[in-house]
Amino acid sequence: MQMDMNKPMQLLGGLSAEEFMRDYWQKKPLLIKQAFPNFKMPIPLERLRTLASFEGVESRMVRRNGEEWLLDRGPLEEIPTNDMPNWSLLVQSMDLHEQAFYDMAQNFRFIPDARFDDVMVSLASIGGGVGPHFDTYDVFLLQGNGSRTWRISQQEDQELIPDLPCRILKNFKPENEWVLEPGDMLYLPPQCAHDGIADTNDCVTISFGFRTLSLANMARGVLEAAIDQISVQSGLGIGIYSEPLIDGYKVDGLYSDPQQVPVSNPAQIPESMIEQSLEALKNIKYNDKLASRFLGCWLTEPNKVAEFEFNEEELNIEDMSPETILRLDIKSKMLYRNNEVYINGEVVEAPLNEILKTLADDRKITAELANTSDELTFELLHRWLDDGWLICD
Ligand code: SIN
Ligand code: CO
């Protein structure tokens, strides 16, 4: 991907990607006026209501009635009309449901794909919002339609009001307040308290969310990958992180206790058994290959609402004109590290090469480039075309 990281960007209010990442990312909020100049909603607002009624779409409705908060999870059958105040409809993974939001999210790819989560779009009537709260996410909140007043605070107090269906801060003390109009955007780092209240009956906020992984999950995943490697290499079965083999995960030998003396307390676990278990563990290397295996497979797992459409027609890259574009489907996720490539939760059989790297970074390649593939890569590209992971236009 060719991008000048030192070039001022309208998206970042004139900052370069380099400056934004250095001074704001994970550090402090940034208000960006007209990040998307003259912004117009790419879909009719009605479409959000329709999507929220579908089974395969994750949505929720938050309503406020004085001090009372009500939460309904989709599919939603009844959504209040726009002239009813104080409600907000939130639809997740809009980047997978509407190409236009996927395209908008591409603007943020100076941030690693591994950190990207989804685009959430909310539609709120006047007074609507989800209340003062904080997220563990980095988020860019773009005003899509109407206007909304945002109040934010970098307060330390994160106490929540108990027994509510939504996470609402007990003592929200706003430090800044801004009114966002279409095209304006607010970046918030994780833990920054915020409250956005719709000022109009057709208020739309488009949130580009970047998940922050918990270290507990990361450590657990590396251990899981180690378990899968030991299991497959010791003939104890396969797991999602077992193929292909990573050297050095075979634990040989059997427990032995030729020195065992007779016991008068037979229920007690022998100390040598404890010692030999721990000794066996010393064979396991928690190395970068294991971490990459887990992260690559886990982070490329398709979203739970993603369904790929098999391609019925026989597509042959050799028959395509050189300028035909092969692109990853919007639901496909692809990452790589060193020689290993990951796509949609799997390790790719071929090692990283120029074609796979370009496909992952640019999310597209020309048929001309694809036609320079080695046999294995060529076969993979065809398989992905058949499975609908890759599409051509
Ligand atoms: C929204 O209301 O669209 C944004 C929700 C949030 O503050 O996380
Ligand atoms: Co939030």
From TrEMBL:
GO molecular function (one): 2-oxoglutarate-dependent dioxygenase activity
SMART domains named among the record's database cross-references: JmjC
Recorded superkingdom: Bacteria
InterPro entries: JmjC_dom (IPR003347), NO66-like (IPR039994), ROXA-like_wH (IPR046799)
Keyword DNA damage: no
Cofactor: Fe(2+)
Sorted UniProt keywords: Dioxygenase, Iron, Metal-binding, Oxidoreductase
Residues of the JmjC domain: 100-227
Protein name: JmjC domain-containing protein
Organism the protein comes from: Taylorella asinigenitalis (strain MCE3)
